[in-house]
Specification:
Blueprint (H helix, E strand, L loop, with lengths): L11 H10 L14 H5 L3 E2 L9 E3 L8 E4 L2 E4 L10 E3 L6 E9 L4 E8 L11 E6 L35 E8 L2 E6 L2 E7 L3 H8 L16 E4 L6 E10 L1
Antiparallel strand pairs: 1-13, 2-5, 3-4, 4-13, 5-12, 6-9, 6-13, 7-8, 7-12, 9-10, 10-11
Length: 240
């Protein structure tokens, strides 16, 4: 037997070199942290796994629907008296936002961006990245209701979500009026705010009578409380 091998695994010398010269090559990145490369690229954490210090309820409303469990932000589906969306304390204009999420069976939620607090709910001002149990939702979904959609506007190009209970990785890129939605490595939506096509879709949507909906150039980011059953982690952003 080759004494440099451990039960058929990599030679010890190679393992040592990998750990010394590239310590992340054999170890998964810890949740809710940034690598040196991410920090250099301008990424910032919006959740450290311990506290929601960078978040507050929409309009500072009373809320008992959110909790932190095992390094995850969890929106509870039971024993909640006061529901409210959670929004960032800071506002963002052009950005790349990355986050991991999972839903319980039949759950439905969303992440809304560039919102303001002039309306009764966050989704009445900003576009929504839809988050839902695509396979297990009890009602038939319209295409614009599937995960990754620009909700009620642009349906995803394909169903790219994982089953309920498994984590998904999402990215939103917002640069001026150009928006991209990514889900598990697939670009599922790509649109331009304010184009004739965009206005046609808006006129057919639930937002048709809301002046200025979706047109904020800057705003808060919102985790939607839509009855609970959703978890978030690894929420990070870099301004563009």
């Amino acid at each position: 037997m080759n004494k440099n091998r451990l039960h058929g695994h990599l030679p010890l010398a190679i393992v040592f070199c990998l750990l010394v010269f590239n310590p992340g090559s054999l170890l998964a990145q810890t949740d809710n942290t940034l690598t040196a490369a991410e920090k250099k690229a301008g990424w910032k954490l919006l959740f450290d796994g311990k506290a929601t210090s960078q978040w507050r309820p929409y309009k500072n409303a009373e809320s008992d629907g959110w909790e932190i469990v095992n390094g995850e932000i969890h929106c509870k589906d039971k024993d909640v008296k006061h529901r409210a969306d959670m929004i960032t304390k800071e506002t963002y204009a052009d950005f790349e936002l990355a986050f991991d999420w999972k839903v319980s069976k039949a759950a439905n939620s969303g992440l809304v961006y560039r919102i303001d607090e002039k309306h009764g709910a966050a989704h009445e001002s900003g576009s929504e990245y839809q988050l839902i149990d695509d396979a297990g939702y009890p009602e038939k979904l319209q295409s614009w209701q599937n995960s990754g959609a620009d909700y009620d506007m642009h349906p995803p190009t394909k169903i790219a979500s994982k089953p309920a209970g498994e984590y998904n990785h999402s990215i939103i890129k917002a640069k001026g009026k150009h928006i991209e939605h990514w889900l598990n490595g697939v670009k599922v939506a790509d649109y331009e705010i304010g184009t004739p096509e965009w206005h046609v879709l808006k006129e057919k949507s639930k937002w048709k009578d809301i002046e200025g909906w979706g047109e904020n150039s800057k705003g808060n980011i919102c985790l939607q409380d839509h009855g609970g059953g959703i978890w978030f982690k690894n929420i990070k952003i870099r301004e563009l």
